[in-house]
Amino acid sequence: MACAAVLVPGLLRSSSGTICSPAASLKLTSSALRHLTLTSIMKSKRKTDHLERTASVVRQEVVSAAKVCGAVNESPSVKRLRLFVADKDFSFKAGQWVDFFIPGVSVVGGFSICSSPRMLEEERMIELAVKYTNHPPALWIHNQCTLDSEVAVRVGGEFFFDPQPADAPRNLVLIAGGVGINPLLSILRHAADLHREWADKGGGYEMGTIKLFYSAQNTSELLFKKNILDLVNEFPEKIACRLHVTKQTTQISAELKPYITEGRITEKEISDHVSKETLFYICGPPPMTDFFSKQLENSHVPPEHICFEKWW
To answer: Is the keyword Oxidoreductase in the record (predicted)?
Structure first.
């Protein structure tokens, strides 16, 4: 397993749910992919661009065509996309992101994958969740993207959880702020897949426990609530979550109430989970990420057990 501190962009917002047939052929040819990639790289020159911020981060060489097969409003400000990627050379580790190339849009997007590697292996699908901003790739996703739209994607990132069967069991503490949940949901889903494999086959990697701390302004902006609670209920002795809201103004539903804490994630909540068997993954706004990584460092957690990624 490996992880590192890297900087990545924020993610995106809205639309209605739709599904397409994966069998539909992708029209982007190899030469078109090369042209799209090179053109986008040459034109994407702003200092705040994803490509510049992540220039030193490891990327795969493969650029793959992808087709939009689904779009749904995950919250009032976030749209979730499902992409079909036929290319068998395309793969990723839980927690990584993609460079997102859009025909006709010169700026390259950078969005964390929120689905598990198992979904790609079994269905050739990946999911992204993108927050609405005025950044051109986000605007395209929210205002122009349609079912069967074609894009190109390339995997990158050094923030991931990829244990091997012979590795020692580890507990995970996942700390998310806002759309920083995206790579952590991928890691949570991957951990659940590893639990299932261990339970069904008695083999693979033996996962420890997973605790998710996730903060947003209100319950409508807590993304993937159903997905998270489904996993908590499927693995009640292995997976737990505490959902924080900082500006809640409406009544909290009975279903969510047992998991909700009003106010920010606290130092004590995190320090209670410090142990030599625990890895900490943090993703959110830079001040939050800096605060908890520094706190863990002060609690004598080894640097190699603190993995963080910032979104902007």
So the answer is: yes
Question: Judging by DSSP bridges, how do beta strands 306-310 and 171-177 pair with one another?
Answer: unpaired
Alpha helices, DSSP H, located in 202-276: 225-234, 267-271
pLDDT digits (tens, 9 = 90+) for 201-252: 888 999 999 999 999 999 999 999 999 999 999 999 999 999 999 999 999 9
Between CA 249 and CA 231 the distance in angstroms is 27
* Cα distances (angstroms) measured from residue 185 to each of 23, 45, 103: 27, 31, 28
Q: Two tokens at 217?
A: 């302004």
Radius of gyration of the chain (CA): 19
Task: Look at residues 91, 108, 93, 96 and name the one whose alpha carbon lies nearest to residue 151.
Answer: 108
Nearest to 224 by CA among 239, 234, 211, 214: 214
Beta bridge partners of 101: 152
Q: What pTM does this model have?
A: 0.87
Structure tokens of 203?
Answer: 């083999």
Q: Which CATH class is domain 58-156?
A: mainly beta
The CATH number of domain 171-310, selected from 3.40.50.80, 3.60.40.10, 1.10.10.10, 1.10.1610.10 = 3.40.50.80
Residue 114's alpha-carbon distances to 44, 74, 123, in angstroms, are 25, 12, 15
- Amino acid at the residue 175: I
Task: Tell me the backbone φ, ψ of residue 213, rounded to 5 degrees.
Answer: -110, 120
Which residues of the chain form CATH 2.40.30.10?
58-156
Q: pLDDT tens-digit profile of 59-95?
A: 999 999 999 999 999 999 999 999 999 999 999 999 9
CA distance 102 to 139: 11
Distance CA 107, CA 104 (A): 9
Nearest to 78 by CA among 137, 128, 12, 171: 12
If we measure between CA atoms, which residue out of 9, 169, 24 comes closest to residue 83? 24
Residue intervals of the chain classified under CATH 3.40.50.80 are 171-310
